[in-house]
Amino acid sequence: MRMRGDCYSLAFRFLHWSIAFVMLGMLITILLRYSWLNKEEMSEIIMGYSTSQDVNMTKEKAVVLAKRIRAPLWEWHVYLGYALMGLVFIRIILGMMGRVPFLNPFKGGIILNLRIRAIIYLLFYVCVVISLVTGLVLELDIETAYNNEIKSIHFGSIYYFVTYLVIHFIGVLFAELSSDNGIVSRMINGKSKYDL
Length: 196
Fold this sequence. Notes:
Blueprint: H1 10-34, H2 39-52, H3 59-96, H4 112-139, H5 147-155, H6 157-176, H7 183-189
Helix pairs in contact: 1-3, 2-3, 3-4, 4-5, 4-6
């Protein structure tokens, strides 16, 4: 449990920001893949350009070309997934060793606010682990009887992540407006702005 003015360790801050930036990178690759770099829209652009240049291009070939153009983007998603796997593993190990804090929602005697925060963090990490495991199964092309379900669960990860981001930002905003203000300063430099 943290009280106003408590410091966050360098290890905790490093893990927090590393996980945040890696997950934001993964989110960007997903959003680009399903918006500006959508294979259908890209294939239409390729087809339009091919037609204007008197090049014979079928729709199927245009889709293949669009997939090849955006393939490096997906490679980044995979690399970031492996990085996230390593960071979450380190976070769990350091949490079990007591080196970085991890709120226990089942601990007795904690106030409701902290219990709710602990439950949200626990659910977040459970969802992250599920996303990583399903992503690994898909990346390694492991055949199971549940591949369609695994794919759906992995693709659905964006919903929990965006939901968590919104909850996290609202929580930080409320903390800054309450007696726990200075949390942003502590997460950046380890000390509250009031301690500087």
